[in-house]
C-alpha cells in the first residue's frame, strides 16, 4: 500500500508582466498608488512605486474581466469556465484583501462587470452562451434581477457601462444593439430602452459615459465613435466622418468634461474633443480629433486614468504597458512581457539572480530579485 505524501501548495510570491489581451483588464486604484490587473486565475494588486504585489486567490479558471468601484472599496472579477458550467463573479474587499461576496448565475463566461457610482449595485453581463444582464446588491450580497441583454433580432451583447451620476442606469451594446437600462428596485425589474441609430448598423465593442450622464460614446468595429444622448436615446454624432480608426475602436475613456481618449486596433491612441454649440432653436454637437495622437505597438486594450487624468496608463495586446503624461502626451514603456506562451526557462550556471525565457519571436532575460526585464532579443 502506497503511503500518502502530504505537500504544501506552492505560494505565489511575485509575477513579472500582465495579461494585455484582457479588455479593460488594467485599472488604476482611486488612491493613485496602486494598479489592479488579472493574470491567469489571480487578481494582482501592485504598488506603482515600490512594485510590491498582493494576490487575490479564489477563481478556478482564467479571470477575463475586472472592475473597481469609484470609492476604491471593492474590486469585482469575473472568470470563464467550461461549457455547461456556471462562471463565478467574486467581489473583493480592497482594504482587507479578501473575498467579500461570490455570485454564481451566468453560464460559461462573464463578459463584463460594472459598479454603480455609489457602489450600491454591480452589473454583470454574461457571454455569448449566457446573454443576460444581472444586477446585484452589494450591501445585501444577492441578485436583484436579470434580463436578456439583447432583443431577439440583435446579435451578441459585447460590452457594458454604468452611469457616472445615476445609481440606477446602465448601458449595454454589441452587434446591432445599444440599450439604456433603468433599474426599478421596488419591483425588482430592469427595463431596457433601445437607442435609435437610424439607418446605421454597427458592432460596438467599447463604451464610455460623459461626466454628467448627458451622452455616452460607443466605439465600433468599423472605426468610428458614436455619440448617443442618454436622455433621449438618439444618435447625435458619428465621428470621424472620414479616415476612421483602422482595425476598429477597441477602448474608450472620457477625460474631464469634454475630452475622449480613443484606443484603436492598429495601436493608435487619439484624443477627441466633444463640444456642443447652441442657438435659439437648435443644438449642434461635434466630436473632432485634436492634435494629440500616438502610435503604440499592438491593439490598445485598456486606458486607465491616474487621479484626474494628468497621467494615465495604456496597455496593448502585445503586453506592453505605457505611462502617458496628458499635458504633452509624452509616454514611456514601463513594463513588458511575453505575449505568447513561455516555452522554456533557464538559470545561468551558478547564478540564481538572473534567468532567461523564450517564447514566440523573442528571448528575454529577467532579474529575479527586482522582478524586471534586463534584456530583450527579438527574432523572426
From TrEMBL:
Q: What does this protein do?
A: Microtubule inner protein (MIP) part of the dynein-decorated doublet microtubules (DMTs) in cilia axoneme. Important for proper ciliary and flagellar beating. May act in cooperation with CFAP45 and axonemal dynein subunit DNAH11. May play a role in cell growth and/or survival.
Please give the GO cellular component terms listed in this UniProt entry.
axoneme; motile cilium
Membership in a protein family = Belongs to the CFAP52 family.
Q: How does it assemble?
A: Microtubule inner protein component of sperm flagellar doublet microtubules. Interacts with BRCA2. Interacts with the CCT chaperonin complex. Interacts with HSP70. Interacts with AK8. Interacts with CFAP45. Interacts with DNAI1. Interacts with IQDC.
PANTHER family named in the record? CILIA- AND FLAGELLA-ASSOCIATED PROTEIN 52, WD-40 REPEAT PROTEIN
Q: Which UniProt keywords apply?
A: Cell projection, Cilium, Cytoplasm, Flagellum, Repeat, WD repeat
Q: Indicate where this protein resides in the cell.
A: Cell projection, Cilium, Flagellum; Cytoplasm
The upper taxonomy is: Eukaryota, Metazoa, Spiralia, Lophotrochozoa, Platyhelminthes
Main location as per UniProt: other
Name under which the protein is recorded: Cilia- and flagella-associated protein 52
Amino acid at each position: 500500500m502506497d503511503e500518502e505524501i502530504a505537500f504544501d501548495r506552492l505560494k505565489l510570491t511575485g509575477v513579472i508582466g500582465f495579461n494585455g489581451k484582457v479588455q479593460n483588464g488594467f485599472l488604476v486604484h482611486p488612491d493613485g498608488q496602486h494598479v489592479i490587473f488579472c493574470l491567469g486565475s489571480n487578481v494582482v494588486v501592485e504598488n506603482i512605486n515600490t512594485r510590491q504585489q498582493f494576490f487575490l486567490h479564489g477563481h478556478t479558471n482564467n479571470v477575463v474581466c475586472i472592475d473597481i468601484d469609484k470609492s476604491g472599496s471593492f474590486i469585482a472579477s469575473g472568470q470563464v469556465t467550461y461549457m455547461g458550467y456556471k462562471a463565478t463573479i467574486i467581489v473583493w474587499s480592497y482594504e482587507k484583501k479578501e473575498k467579500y461576496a461570490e455570485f454564481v448565475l451566468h453560464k460559461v463566461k462573464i463578459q463584463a462587470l460594472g459598479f454603480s457610482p455609489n457602489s450600491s449595485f454591480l452589473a454583470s453581463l454574461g457571454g455569448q452562451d449566457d446573454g443576460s444582464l444581472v444586477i446585484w446588491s452589494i450591501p445585501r450580497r444577492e441578485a436583484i434581477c436579470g434580463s436578456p441583454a439583447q432583443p431577439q433580432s440583435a446579435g451578441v451583447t459585447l460590452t457594458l457601462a454604468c452611469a457616472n451620476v445615476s445609481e440606477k442606469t446602465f448601458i449595454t451594446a454589441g452587434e446591432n444593439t445599444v440599450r439604456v437600462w433603468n433599474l426599478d428596485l421596488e419591483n425588482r425589474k430592469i427595463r431596457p430602452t433601445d437607442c435609435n441609430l437610424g439607418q446605421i448598423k454597427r458592432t460596438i465593442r467599447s463604451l464610455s459615459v460623459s461626466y454628467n450622464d448627458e451622452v455616452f460614446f460607443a466605439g465600433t468595429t468599423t472605426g468610428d465613435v458614436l455619440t448617443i444622448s442618454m436622455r433621449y436615446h438618439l444618435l447625435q454624432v458619428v465621428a470621424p466622418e472620414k479616415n476612421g480608426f483602422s482595425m476598429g475602436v477597441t477602448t474608450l475613456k472620457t477625460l474631464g468634461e469634454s475630452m475622449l481618449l480613443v484606443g484603436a486596433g492598429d495601436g493608435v491612441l487619439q484624443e477627441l474633443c466633444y463640444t456642443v454649440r447652441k442657438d435659439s432653436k437648435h443644438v449642434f454637437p461635434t466630436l473632432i480629433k485634436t492634435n494629440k495622437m500616438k502610435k503604440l505597438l499592438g491593439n490598445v486594450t485598456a486606458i486607465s486614468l491616474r487621479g484626474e487624468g494628468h497621467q494615465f496608463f495604456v496597455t496593448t495586446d502585445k503586453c506592453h504597458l505605457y505611462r502617458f503624461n496628458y499635458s504633452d502626451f509624452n509616454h514611456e514603456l514601463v513594463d513588458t512581457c511575453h505575449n505568447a506562451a513561455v516555452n522554456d526557462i533557464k538559470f545561468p550556471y551558478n547564478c540564481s539572480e538572473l534567468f532567461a525565457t523564450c517564447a514566440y519571436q523573442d528571448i528575454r532575460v529577467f532579474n529575479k530579485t527586482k522582478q524586471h526585464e534586463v534584456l530583450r532579443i527579438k527574432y523572426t
